[in-house]
Specification:
2 domains; 11 strands; eleven-stranded antiparallel beta sheet; about 325 residues
Length: about 325
């Protein structure tokens, strides 16, 4: 069944599109800049309404918690609050839509981001190299080049590998002095292999994702829960740049009222394939002149083994201690 563009947009915002419908929406977005702008405006409005609706619910919850002497007065007060809040919600949405109509750069950036997120949910396998870059240390090493240059201090692994299938299956591995560490998820449960303890498996697919950089804002690479991409759109200001013919650069800068998350995210997109080629995540630091960041680079789209995202596949190659032997 062919759906109209508005139905596809609404289905995407409600996270209920099938794979074929998501692909149809993606094709429609590519047809013209007007389509992308229409989609972005709908997304911006949807996000704004959600924010206002959450605020309304919080207000009503507070009202319910207040005990009023007479029940009729309580019901009347609640009705007034509902009508007033609903009116404010409609007005805020209308004003926001008027504002968004004149925000073409932001709308284009939001559309590009959502298209990228939709592509990340395709079933193709992808392999990324994750590097932890300290530009200050790199400059110091270049300035002290020679046989007597100081060695970098010991610390956590400076590089890891991230393997992804679709939006929810991943394997994240890194090497340390103690051995190989591997965390993963098969889309329903998560698991961890360490050299110092037995295999751990958890029914929560996000239980072992704490090692991933900025996990709540990784939707261009991994989408663990429906609507995850909306968090970045709500918490960050997005802009789209075209530094050269081979790269589209999507920049997300944290809004002043956003408390959590990195201060800046840069996403480099291949304009031909519309695939993410590199993502840079800049942490929040007291001194923003410090340019440490995490770099996630796409290095391969070759198919991985069918069992790659199961713990058994990796446990055979990296056996962990037997159960009960880790104490």
């Amino acid at each position: 069944m062919n759906l109209e563009p508005d139905d596809l947009i609404n289905g995407h915002l409600d996270a209920c599109l099938s794979v074929d419908e998501q692909r149809a929406l993606n094709d429609w977005l590519k047809q013209s800049p007007d389509n992308a702008r229409r989609f972005a405006l709908a997304t911006l409005l949807h996000n704004r309404i959600q924010v206002e609706y959450q605020s309304l619910n919080a207000t009503l919850d507070q009202l319910d918690s207040v005990r009023i002497a007479t029940a009729p007065r309580s019901r009347a007060t609640r009705r007034v609050a509902i009508f007033a809040s609903a009116a404010c919600l409609c007005l805020a949405a209308f004003l926001y839509l008027l504002t968004a109509e004149n925000t073409t750069p932001t709308a284009t950036a939001v559309a590009a981001f959502h298209e990228l997120t939709m592509l990340s949910r395709e079933s193709a396998d992808r392999t990324y190299r994750v590097s932890f870059v300290d530009e200050q240390s790199q400059r110091a090493e270049r300035n002290n080049a020679g046989p007597n240059r100081p060695k970098p201090p010991d610390g956590p692994a400076k590089e890891a590998m991230l393997y992804v299938r679709g939006g929810r299956q991943f394997v994240y591995s890194w090497k340390a002095a103690a051995g190989d560490f591997i965390n993963g998820s098969d889309g329903t449960s998560s698991w961890s292999i360490r050299p110092d303890r037995p295999l751990e498996v958890n029914g929560d697919q996000m239980h072992f994702t704490g090692v991933l950089p900025a996990v709540n804002y990784l939707s261009p690479v991994l989408s663990f829960f429906d609507g995850q991409e909306k968090r970045l759109v709500a918490d960050y200001n997005l802009e789209l740049f075209h530094p050269d013919a081979t790269t589209n650069l999507l920049v997300a800068v944290k809004k002043p009222d956003t408390k959590q998350g990195p201060r800046r995210i840069e996403i480099r997109i291949n304009p031909t394939s519309q695939q993410l080629s590199e993502m840079r995540i800049y942490p929040e630091t007291p001194d923003h002149r410090v340019t440490n960041y995490t770099r996630i680079q796409l290095i391969s789209q070759d198919p991985l083994d069918g069992d790659w995202f199961t713990p058994g596949f990796h446990q055979q190659r990296h056996p962990s201690p037997a159960a009960g032997a880790a104490d």
